[in-house]
Design goal:
Largest sheet: 7 strands, mixed
Number of helices: 8
Strand content: 5-15%
Order of helices and strands: HHHHEHEHHEEHEEE
Distance between the termini: 46 Å
Helix content: 40-55%
């Protein structure tokens, strides 16, 4: 156990030093290799390592690793969104160009199944906070699972929304049902009451305090009974995404938490919570 823990700490420290010394986190062979190694290091679910009991130095760099990975993912998604948008044919027919598209298909199917398990009707209006330049979740849910639902994507980055909108421009149905809002979600208030379901992207709030601040804001403005779908992480995967504890969801009833296994094909845990009456 002690040897396993020390080995993991050494691996994380080595990868962090290499990643933090990169001149750029934009897509390149070395960036891809290092982050793939990071994911592989943090994927195992059958381990006795307690993340909270790792040495203080490793604890201190955990948030920094998540921030670096978040930045790299942003660059990667921008790159692939630009490539897809430049294609002559419909970009939505070529989404599998993105290396992790299959992961999103699997994650979205699990999220759809969980959503339908905890709602009495098919939602007509869903918000996604932190949709980015490759809004896969909205696209997959709208195209394959919720053909009558309208999606409102919120992102603070105007370029991300512009690229994402371009992807949909040659699909009249999705272009009419997926709407983009360029704003900080902390500036949204009354409009949040309009949504039956709100998805919170895993990389919104790349440190614990920021994540909880967003959750508290959503709780303040969501309609009672509305569902919050958020992505978290468990165990070693908390070096990839912020782990959200049920106690962080004050004002919500946590209905279910799904922790994926290695065979599921995606990393995030999924939490479903219902906004309590005020």
């Amino acid at each position: 156990m002690a040897c396993q823990k020390a080995h993991f700490e050494n691996q994380i420290l080595d990868l962090y030093n290499k990643i933090s010394n990169l001149k750029s986190l934009k897509p390149s062979k070395i960036v891809d290799i290092l982050f793939q190694q990071l994911v592989s290091t943090c994927l195992p679910t059958e381990t006795n390592i307690d993340v909270e009991k790792l040495c203080p130095k490793i604890q201190d760099i955990r948030t920094n690793i998540i921030k670096l990975r978040s930045e790299a993912i942003g660059y990667s998604e921008e790159h692939f969104s630009t490539v897809l948008g430049s294609l002559e044919d419909n970009p939505l027919h070529r989404l599998d160009i993105y290396p992790y598209y299959t992961n999103y298909l699997k994650l979205s199917k699990v999220e759809f199944d969980l959503l339908m398990l905890h709602t009495s009707h098919v939602p007509t209006k869903i918000a996604f906070v932190g949709s980015g330049s490759l809004p896969f979740t909205s696209i997959i849910l709208a195209k394959f699972h919720l053909p009558k639902t309208t999606f409102h994507n919120f992102d603070i980055d105007p370029r991300a929304n512009s690229l994402a909108s371009q992807l949909l421009s040659r699909d009249p149905d999705l272009f009419s049902r997926i709407i983009f809002h360029t704003m900080d979600i902390l500036d949204a208030s009354e409009v949040l009451r309009d949504y039956e379901v709100i998805f919170l992207a895993s990389l919104v709030g790349v440190d614990r305090e920021a994540k909880i601040k967003v959750i508290e804001h959503l709780e303040k403005h969501m309609a009672p009974g509305a569902l919050l779908m958020l992505r978290s992480a468990k165990g070693l995967r908390a070096f990839l995404y912020i782990d959200v504890d049920p106690c962080d969801l004050r004002g919500f009833e946590v209905l279910e938490t799904y922790h994926p296994s290695l065979s599921d094909g995606f990393v995030n845990s999924v939490m479903v919570a219902r906004k309590l009456s005020n």
